[in-house]
Design a protein that fits this description.
alpha+beta; 3-stranded antiparallel β-sheet; 8 helices; 20 strands
Length: 420
């Protein structure tokens, strides 16, 4: 933040010397942000819900691809996944192909942020209702085109079935994330009605994750919609039976339609190095933190976020690192959440903390995650660390020859019988 402030002072003095109006200074100021993210080693930040002019619809006119990419570069984003509304491709997939080409050009120069392309698919959810699904690639920087058009340009009738579409995403080697599941809705003047975006197809199978935090209507503040999504996510995590094979991953996005909306919500992911494949793997495996500012990193028995920790019942220790900056405010409090319920709440101060927190665990518990808040209301929430309580070591059967001890015991028994 020092560099940012220093640059602004220099520009102001230069403009004053040249007698250029301060209005120009104010217009240029947004482009003088060097980095908004309090990232630490191994952590990267990106946004996977973005709209541009390639996805213009009858009732949305987003900014240009180039302005969004340039702004993200100035903000030090590490990756972007562009997700135009599927109904924008009513006339065909030409715009989708053009956007892929833009990303091809960016990636070919090894520029950052890394550029990827998916879609935001409009799905049937009832009369004057629709639900949205974010479709991402899993092993490439773009997902093959899906026909997600509805019967009219306002996305209100004859949209595709949710399960059918999720199946197709998986067949195309993609990932699907439920978008803004408790959206308040948007009033479309032409239709003169309120369009509801609540997700209703909770019984569908094959979804990779859930957009828990969407900043489209709240400028990065944790809203009632986000709180509802969080509680729903907690309930769905409790239903997981084999998280080692994958679980419902939580993410955060800006849902930006203009470059000025970038930086309101995003996802941090941990990876060995920044590559497209590592980003997509982190999303799939849940090595991520959903945030509007603070970064939280924690481990249990050397297992990080998204992994399974083998633990004993009783006292355990969480190793925690938290980081914020002047952009997002000083740390205010940390919540330790076990199986969706608040276990501990700790007051915080300053911009960074390293903590070793003891916690008592019963062998019925399934997962732990953390939530941090700053003085300015910015929030970070981790994906879970799953708990696997180690069972007591069972002594080998006296008739079991799969171990040396068991085999010796069995031989001794037979020898004893022979001489008796």
């Amino acid at each position: 933040m020092f560099l940012e402030t220093f640059a602004k002072i220099l520009l102001y003095r230069f403009l004053k010397m040249k007698k250029i109006t301060v209005l120009v200074f104010l217009l240029l100021t947004p482009f003088l942000v060097f980095s908004v993210f309090p990232k630490t080693q191994g952590w990267y930040a990106g946004d996977a819900h973005l709209h541009t002019h390639f996805g213009e619809t009858a009732w949305e006119n987003p900014g240009t691809f180039q302005s969004t990419y340039a702004r993200a570069k100035n903000l030090d984003y590490d990756w972007l996944i562009f997700t135009e509304h599927s109904v924008a491709f009513d006339i065909g997939s030409q715009n989708y192909t053009q956007e892929i080409q833009e990303c091809t050009n960016k990636n070919s120069t090894q520029d950052q942020p890394l550029c990827m392309v998916g879609q935001e698919l409009s799905l049937y959810a009832g009369s004057n209702k629709q639900q949205h699904l974010l479709a991402y690639p899993k092993n490439n920087y773009f997902l093959e085109y899906l026909d997600g058009t509805c019967n009219d340009q306002f996305q209100l009738s004859n949209c595709r079935d949710a399960q059918e579409t999720i199946n197709e995403v998986n067949e195309l080697n993609g990932m699907s994330f439920i978008a803004h599941p408790f959206h308040q809705g948007v009033e479309i003047p032409v239709v003169q009605d309120l369009v509801i975006f609540d997700w209703v197809s909770w019984g569908t199978q094959g979804v990779t994750g859930l957009e828990v935090f969407n900043a489209s209507d709240n400028d990065g503040q944790w809203s009632n919609d986000d709180q509802q999504a969080f509680h729903k996510w907690m309930g769905l995590l409790l239903e997981e039976t084999n998280p080692q094979d994958g679980f419902l991953v939580g993410i955060a996005n800006s849902d930006a339609h203009y470059s000025t909306e970038l930086g309101t919500a995003f996802t941090y992911c941990y990876m060995d190095s920044l590559t497209i494949q590592n980003v997509l793997n982190a999303y799939k495996k849940g090595h991520c933190v959903l945030s509007s500012g603070p970064l939280i990193d924690f481990s249990l028995n050397e297992k990080r976020i998204g992994k399974t920790a083998f633990v004993d019942e009783g006292s355990q220790v969480l190793s925690i690192k938290l980081n914020s900056n002047s952009q997002y405010g000083r740390l205010k409090k940390l919540s330790i959440i076990v199986d969706g319920l608040l276990e501990q709440e700790l007051p915080l101060t300053g911009y960074s903390k390293e903590l070793e927190i003891p916690i008592e665990l019963e062998n019925t518990k399934k997962f732990i995650l953390l939530k941090a808040e700053t003085q300015t209301g910015k929030v970070g929430v981790t994906n879970p660390i799953w708990l696997d309580f180690e069972s007591e070591q069972i002594s080998p059967s006296s008739d079991d020859c799969s171990t040396i001890l068991g085999c010796f015991s069995m031989f001794a028994k037979k020898l004893s019988t022979f001489f008796s």
